[in-house]
Amino acid sequence: MEQLNQVSEASSRLSEILNREFNALETKDFEEVEGIQDIKFALMQELHEAWAHLKQASNPNRQLMEELTGKLEICKEQHLRNSLLLNKQMEITRNLLNAITKKSNVTASVYDKLGKMN
Length: 118
What we know:
mainly alpha
């Protein structure tokens, strides 16, 4: 029963952390995002260990296991949502950097792409 409570509490805390991470990503508060990573990693480790112990239990309560699985699925969806937002922001930043560097490289470059002098 202890592992059930541990998984339930850890998955609830992880869900809260993932929501905080999403809000920080939306507002582009990358210091907050960075600070959340250690907390998120520790919770995921705690969940992994508690889930492993729970799976080894002789007769886990089926209904509670289904509820916990549902909570973990929500966490997974939140993590994927955050990952998509982060990847989108990284792509935008990369595109901006490429646009800036190509513009400045065109005027400063002495050689073309084939290595011939302009």
